[in-house]
Amino acid sequence: MSEKKPTIVVALGGNAILAEDASAKGQKERLKQTVEYLIPLIRKDVNLIITHGNGPQVGNLVLQQQASDSSKNPAMPLDTCVAMTQGSIGYWLQNELRTQLKAAQIAKPVVTVVTEITVDAQDPAFAHPTKPIGPFLTETAAKEAMAATDAIYREDAGRGWRKVVASPAPQAIQEVASIKALIEQNTIVICAGGGGIPVLDNGLGVEAVIDKDFASEKLARLVDADQLIILTGVEKIALNFGKENEQWLDHVTAAELETYVDEGHFSPGSMLPKVQAALNFVKMGAEKQAVITSLDKLADIEDAGTQITWK
Ligand code: ADP
Ligand code: MG
User: Fold this and answer.
1) Fewer CB atoms near the end CB (10 Å): N or C, the chain?
2) Coil/strand/helix, residue 154
3) CA torsion, points 291, 55, 207, 214, in degrees to nearest 10?
4) Is 4 helix (H, G, I), strand (E, B) or coil?
5) Are the C-beta atoms of 16 and 57 separated by less than 8 Å?
6) Which among 118, 87, 97 is positioned nearest to 218, based on CA atoms?
7) From CA 157, how far away is CA 177, in angstroms rounded?
8) What is the tens place of the pLDDT at every residue in 167-185?
9) At what angle are helices 212-222 and 176-184 packed, to 10 degrees?
């Protein structure tokens, strides 16, 4: 009997896809480097699931949709735009993976799965939308839109008014059985892009944004992954980040990390969701491990980044 292959969920941060150049060519070039970093991990013969963010891409797509909105060519709603970016980013990534796997003589198929994630209509997040999306409007236009629809607009850091949508918690992943079947067949799966397409229990897509780190954790839990690797713009997480007494963390237990969360070391819009996702995952069992690090540390992931375990 062969030993069970480890299952790893790798969540790619925004900087893995987009550097400065938002053209398709620019993003594909960035993804080429990203895939170069993924190859050593794939060589270790693991079951690999890749998730990714889509913030800038879906933001630009929503602007494009609205700029050309007409009755013959109507702007697509947010859930559809998320699906579109899962497709486009998934295409770039699977295409580049296939090229580099072939060059490395690794026989592994790659596929992107359009992923729908159920959220709860009663989720308290719907009463407090926080994620800004779409174009900046004048105060008058925003107030008119609020009177005419049930959308909520807020003033955004002096730059104008923007629509805000809820960021509800992921509850269930519709395609999880298929994703599991694919990795068991040796296939690399790209899924849950942009945190997944939020759908309600009745199956309808909803205008919301699921945090990609929470979606990745939910996925890792549902496929019973051994490791959750969250790749971002920093090599490790820090206490007193950006301050004189900054201290980078190599290994932390869940209990230690919870103390640091309570002490307010992690920014709510960026590092906090990663830390919370890591905490939720390692609480699943003593053998589970989460790592928060940067892409260039993937090759020696055993010693890199901040390693988080239950005990
Ligand atoms: P991603 O696109 O990968 O989700 P984010 O920008 O949302 O990236 O979050 C990662 C960023 O969080 C880091 O690049 C860093 O600038 C910031 N950050 C905030 N608090 C911390 C901390 N305590 N330790 C390390 N990085 C932190
Ligand atoms: Mg983020």
Assistant:
1) N
2) strand
3) 0
4) coil
5) no
6) 118
7) 42
8) 999 999 999 999 999 999 9
9) 60
From the CA of 123, how far away is ligand 2's center (Å)?
21
β-sheet with 227-232: strand ranges across: 110-112, 188-190, 47-52, 7-12, 227-232, 289-294, 306-309, 251-253
Q: How far apart are CA 38 and CA 20, in angstroms?
A: 21
Residue 276's nearest CA partner among 230, 209, 222 is 230
> Which one of the listed residues 5, 14, 28, 205 is annotated catalytic?
14
In this structure, the strands spanning 116-118 and 197-199 are parallel
Does ligand 1 come within 6 angstroms of the Cβ of 232? Answer: yes
CA 263 vs CA 217, 257, 293, 303: distances in Å: 23, 10, 21, 26
> Looking at this protein, which amino acid is placed at residue 192?
A
CA of 14 relative to ligand 2 center, distance in Å: 7
Verify whether residue 102 is a known catalytic residue: no
Model pTM greater than 0.85? yes
Could you give the dihedral angle defined by the CA atoms of residues 10, 13, 17 and 21, in that order, rounded to the nearest 10 degrees? -170
Q: CA 110 to CA 191: how far, in whole Å?
A: 11
Nearest-atom index, ligand 1, CA of 271: 12
pLDDT digits (tens, 9 = 90+) for 47-100: 999 999 999 999 999 999 999 999 999 999 999 999 999 999 999 999 999 999
Q: What amino acid is encoded at 193 in this protein?
A: G
User: Sheet holding 161-165: strands in order across?
Assistant: 131-137, 161-165, 152-155
The residue from 195, 274, 280, 305 that is catalytic is 274
Q: In this structure, are residues 150 and 229 in contact, taking their beta carbons and an 8 Å threshold?
A: no
Q: How far apart are CA 200 and CA 203, in angstroms?
A: 5
- Considering every ligand atom shown, identify the ligand nearest to the alpha carbon of residue 15 and give its number: 1
Cα–Cα dist 304/293, whole Å: 7
Rg (CA), the chain: 20
